[in-house]
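Is this the right way to post structure tokens for a design question? Let me know if I should format differently. Anyway, here goes:
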């Protein structure tokens, strides 16, 4: 199954079914841009799309928020005309999710987007149920959020990020860059239930090798200065950051402190490398966020969320921050640079 398809293909599929029955109309702008506004929706009040995020409230115009909104526009959903966006953020305080989910239910949200297991569970517990769409979720099957990727059930669908598979691959990149590697500090969020099995996989990967893993718990509101005091004592060769929205909020501070100690920072998310990390290997964050428009449109058109397969990225992006490498005195081989999809200079 293709993960991303162009707008023309999407319309052609729709025109064989519901779109023609509803007599939607098509406007071509400049011969390339395709829009198919639904007449009945344009004449109705905008619906509410909710969002439960584990991070702090993003700044206006952040790239991830822009990608999400662009995804809605790609599928003919215009903010203000067709929907009102109601985001709620906890800044890592997961115990707030149930009340925030109930708040979105009182606002009559038609769909709730979520980006952490705790947010998903809170949204899934609402009665009557509201469709749930996951964004870049760590191992949703292993976390018990869906029954399977092909048949998710639980009035839930969305995208998974492959972090359970890609995180061990990061260790290979660390070893390639640091041939004398012996110790890696693993920063994880103890409140994220998907991190424990990922840590288990990492330990299995290093069993019988000279590499020692040092897991260090990092809660969203922890004092990073204290954490890096511990890192100074542990003396790791590198730091690997496990994927988590709340920890991702700390990426600029983490990158700054890591560079100050001449430590390379690795992650599965390109937003960490953009912030000053050395290397990331993971799915295309912004493309995956824009995919939310597809799911929301399908659900608003009558699809059962639990019947829509959960998608995983079909492309994985290797990003290397050469500027950071030079700042901390690390040489990146021409061979590895040639493999990179993006080099930040």
């Amino acid at each position: 199954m293709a993960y991303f398809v162009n707008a023309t293909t999407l319309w052609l599929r729709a025109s064989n079914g519901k779109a023609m029955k509803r007599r939607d109309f098509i406007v071509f702008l400049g011969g390339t841009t395709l829009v198919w506004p639904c007449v009945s929706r344009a004449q109705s009040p905008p619906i509410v799309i909710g969002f439960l995020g584990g991070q702090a409230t993003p700044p206006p115009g952040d790239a991830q928020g822009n990608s999400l909104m662009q995804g809605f526009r790609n599928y003919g959903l215009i903010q203000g005309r067709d929907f009102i966006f109601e985001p709620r953020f906890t800044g890592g305080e997961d115990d707030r999710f149930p009340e925030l989910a109930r708040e979105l239910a009182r606002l009559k949200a038609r769909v709730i987007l979520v980006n952490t297991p705790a947010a998903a569970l809170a949204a899934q517990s609402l009665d009557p149920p509201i469709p749930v769409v996951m964004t870049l979720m760590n191992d949703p099957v292993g976390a018990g959020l869906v029954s399977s990727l092909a048949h998710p059930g639980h009035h839930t669908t969305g995208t998974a990020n492959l972090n359970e598979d890609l995180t061990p691959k990061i260790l290979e990149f660390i070893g390639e860059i640091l041939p004398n590697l012996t110790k890696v500090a693993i920063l994880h969020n103890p409140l994220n239930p998907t991190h424990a099995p990922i840590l288990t996989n990492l330990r299995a990967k290093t069993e019988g090798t000279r590499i020692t893993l040092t897991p260090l718990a990092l809660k969203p509101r922890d004092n990073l200065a204290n954490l890096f005091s511990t890192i100074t004592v542990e003396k790791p060769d590198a730091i690997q950051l496990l994927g988590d929205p709340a920890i991702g909020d700390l990426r600029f501070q983490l990158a700054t402190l890591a560079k100050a100690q001449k430590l390379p920072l690795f992650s599965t998310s390109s937003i960490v490398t953009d912030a000053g990390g050395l290397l990331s290997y993971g799915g295309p964050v912004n493309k995956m966020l824009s995919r939310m428009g597809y799911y929301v449109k399908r659900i608003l058109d009558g699809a059962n969320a639990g019947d829509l397969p959960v998608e995983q990225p079909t492309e994985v992006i290797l990003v290397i921050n050469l500027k950071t490498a030079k700042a901390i005195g690390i040489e990146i081989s021409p061979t590895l640079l040639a493999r990179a999809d993006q080099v930040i200079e």
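Format looks fine. Someone answered above. Worth noting: Residues 1-42 have pLDDT under 50 and may be disordered. The chain is about 40% helix and 20% strand.
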